[in-house]
Specification:
Number of helices of chain A: 4
Strand content of chain A: 15-25%
Helix content of chain A: 25-40%
Strand content of chain B: 35-45%
Number of helices of chain B: 0
Largest interface: A-B, 23 and 24 residues
Mean pLDDT of chain B: 95
Shape of chain A: globular
Number of domains of chain A: 1
CATH class of chain A: Alpha Beta
Order of helices and strands of chain A: HEHEHEEHE
Largest sheet of chain B: 4 strands, antiparallel
Largest sheet of chain A: 5 strands, mixed
Low-confidence stretches of chain B: none
Distance between the termini of chain B: 6 Å
Strand order of the largest sheet of chain B: 3-2-1-29
Structural class of chain B: mainly beta
CATH superfamily of chain A: Beta-grasp domain
Order of helices and strands of chain B: EEEEEEEEEEEEEEEEEEEEEEEEEEEEE
Oligomer: heterodimer
């Protein structure tokens, strides 16, 4: 990797729901190196590459789409229905705010 | 020293119950995978330390877990336990069940019948049943919803569909049962690695004689009055099938009403409900050493999934069906409105065959004398989805 590319790579915070933290064997928010552009898709790619146990748990294996009972939030906005290649807010890209992956409070 | 290990899958985690050969004192371990639905867990008959688990959730999808130490520790096959994964594309995809859509696999299907008679896309939801190979601890079959059969030959690290089942010609007429269109029964015939029986709710029973390449329906003799054609080739809601390994080709079936028997590997079936007070139910199993001794857990009806008169009872036939006796010593006599699901009954192979079943009320009952006497070995688990037993010698 060239020096300019390494300098551009961002450290992004991701907040996972309880069960996914257990699967990934992490406590608290996850820090990931994500090359720009920092999009939801790029963050999830980096998350799954670092934690293979999470593959298929956030995005469907069959079509890569967000699983129905999960939603994405950033800077208090719902990003669940945004295109996955849309660039996230600067605060998320710079690690000042997390990308929140939240499970629906549904069912028992 | 002999003993048993009972593998209990529940709606909120897995439990492992262990006891010595007398099956009197029990140790309860768990919950493992707390909070997840554990549809099924089963050990390899070749290596009793090898156990496979179907861990599933509506939120996070399907995971496969494996133990190589008899249930003490677990891991997703092929994935790094800790630390960084190896660079490059992933080699192991233990949780990926991709339907085979290649033309080479033989008439791949994309739709099946839906509740409203329209065609509905085939969609993977979960693994209902895991069946380890009788000869190789790294080979294991998975029955999934929407119905299909998968096989792994690398210990669960990767799965491939045996597409000939969905592609043999009747798949477009398969419909889901109330709980989904699940492939819930897989029976591997001892001594004949090419023969496999499977059953689907609500498509019926099927058999392969060439290791899964080609399949045929085996539902002749089944009568299902809810269908426009009650004796159709497919569409029957088979709940479960059991076979004693010492009597290959003799099958016992609990379907949506009726207990059935086949003596010719499913080529034909006859009803053996006999004097059962109700022949609706889900679970069925066969005594480990008496191939004509069969157990069922009758449920009042398809509209009321609980025991008759609030009495939890198992029924046993020592004649391969038709003549049934009530077993209730040690089981609740009143105010009991639980169900016994299709994969929630099992037998061990100790000399005095033990019978086990779990209920949706969270109890696991055991009999150490072939069903004459019962006691609850745990009372308050989450709803039990499956029970399997490993006999440890």
């Amino acid at each position: 990797m060239s020096e300019p590319e390494r300098a551009d790579t961002k450290t992004v915070l991701v907040s996972l729901p309880y069960h996914l933290r257990n699967l990934a064997r992490v406590e608290g928010d996850v820090r990931l190196e994500v090359p720009p552009p920092v999009t939801v898709g790029a963050v999830l790619n980096a998350l799954e590459a670092r934690y293979p146990a999470l593959r298929g748990t956030i995005r469907e294996y069959s079509n890569g789409k967000r699983r129905a009972f999960l939603r994405f939030f950033a800077c208090q906005e719902d990003w669940s229905l945004e295109p996955v290649d849309k660039v996230l807010p600067q605060a998320v890209a710079e690690g000042r705010e997390p990308l929140l992956i939240i499970g629906a409070i549904a069912g028992g | 020293m002999s003993g048993v290990r009972v593998l209990v899958g529940t709606r909120k985690g897995a439990f492992v119950l262990t006891s010595g050969g007398k099956r009197r004192n029990w140790k309860v371990s768990g919950p493992f995978f707390a909070g997840w639905e554990i549809y099924h867990m089963k050990g390899s008959p070749v290596d009793p330390k090898r156990i496979y688990v179907s861990q599933t959730s509506g939120w996070f999808g399907q995971l496969i877990q494996r133990s190589d130490d008899g249930g003490k520790t677990w891991h997703q096959p092929g994935l790094p336990d800790q630390g960084l994964p190896a660079p490059g594309p992933p080699v192991a995809l233990p949780n990926r069940f991709a339907y085979d859509t290649s033309a080479e696999s033989g008439k791949p299907l994309t739709t099946h019948l839906w509740y409203d008679d329209t065609q509905h896309p085939w969609e993977f939801k979960r693994v209902w049943h895991l069946e380890p190979s009788l000869t190789d601890p790294d080979t294991v079959y998975a029955g999934v919803e929407d119905a299909a059969l998968f096989r792994s030959t690398d210990g669960g690290e990767n799965w491939h569909e045996l597409a000939g089942l969905r592609g043999h010609g009747t798949g477009s007429q398969w419909t889901p049962g109330a709980g989904g269109m699940g492939l819930h029964t897989i029976i591997l015939e001892p001594g004949n690695p090419n023969r496999i029986y499977i059953a689907i709710s609500a498509a019926g029973a099927f058999r392969t004689d060439d290791g899964g390449v080609t399949w045929k329906p085996i539902n002749k003799g089944l009568v299902s009055n809810f269908m426009p054609n009650p004796t159709a080739e497919v569409g029957h809601c088979v709940h479960h099938i059991a076979m004693n390994p010492a009597r290959p080709g003799v099958l016992f079936m609990q379907k949506h009403w009726d207990v059935m028997r086949s003596d010719d590997a499913g080529e034909s079936w006859r009803e053996v409900s006999g004097n059962l007070p109700t022949d609706f139910g889900f679970a069925i199993d066969v005594h480990a050493h008496e191939p004509e001794t069969v157990y069922v857990a009758p449920i009042k009806s398809d509209s009321e999934h609980f025991p008759l008169d609030g009495k939890l009872r198992i029924y046993r036939s020592r004649t391969g069906g038709n003549e049934w006796e009530e077993l209730g010593k040690g089981l609740p006599d009143k105010d009991c409105y639980v169900n016994v699901l299709r994969d929630a009954m099992a037998v061990d192979t100790l000399d005095d065959c033990g019978i086990y079943f779990g209920t949706t009320g969270g109890q696991v009952y055991a009999s150490a004398d072939g069903g004459d006497n019962w006691r609850a070995i745990v009372h308050d688990l989450p709803a039990v989805l499956s029970v399997e037993v490993q006999t440890l010698k």
